[in-house]
Amino acid sequence: MNKILFVINPISGDKDKTDLINQIDEWAEGLDISIEKWETTGKDDDQKLKDCIEKLKPQTVVAVGGDGTVMLCAMVVKGTEIALGLLPAGSANGMATELEIPQDVKEALAVVLKGNTIQADMLLFNDADYGLHISDVGLNAGLVKEFEEGERRGFLGYAKGVTNQLMNLEQFQATIELDDKTVVEDCHMVAFANARRYGTGAVLNTIGKLDDGLFEIYVLRELSVAGLAAQFFDHVDESASYCQVYQTSQVKIKLNRPQTFQIDGELMGEIDEVNVKIEAGCLRLII
Fold this sequence. Notes:
Keywords: ATP-binding, Kinase, Nucleotide-binding, Transferase. This protein is of the alpha+beta class.
């Protein structure tokens, strides 16, 4: 009998999870599966989840929350035969958006039950920190910082963050050492994309795959209202002058001055240098 462990973040998305948990219980009735539920607390979650998995020995772990919950689960199950499923229930659901996991609970659970998987790659930053989705330095990371440190949430908080970033926007220089060449770019942002799109739906590239052993470097050279708007409608003109996309398996980047850095939505402070490499096929991911 297949055992599924649901890892639930009770505060993700500022939403009560009672109804969602009830839907999980109702869904499981009559199916030839065994389910367990475990809630995060924000304190030593990684070690406690490891202990829980060791005790229960599930075949599948389902992250019920946002990108932070997905990363928590991914870090624990990477390198094992345990499959990772997603039940989007956070304020940011970037990986669920990338995989086109339905927002409807029953439809998302049907994806879990079907159990189709890929061996997904992960990104390793400075031989220390992992990312699964999209990480970046510059403009977007600055927006994340503004939103996290601001008093307002929702659209007004995001709008204020955008305004503050645009008012203080300056280019920085990035020296980018790729697999086969070194380039120098004057830009507002450099993104490290293991996927094609942000949780907002904005597309960064059209060539990215989660299981190809490569990742994409997206360089935003200058602001283009028309170009950036088009990216929200699944269109990226990769020949346009305002941006550039490189594909690689590793990269070393040096900046001429420190920039805010985020990994999958988690702020990592300011950096002026970062090394990134692919850890290919390390995560069994349900799609």
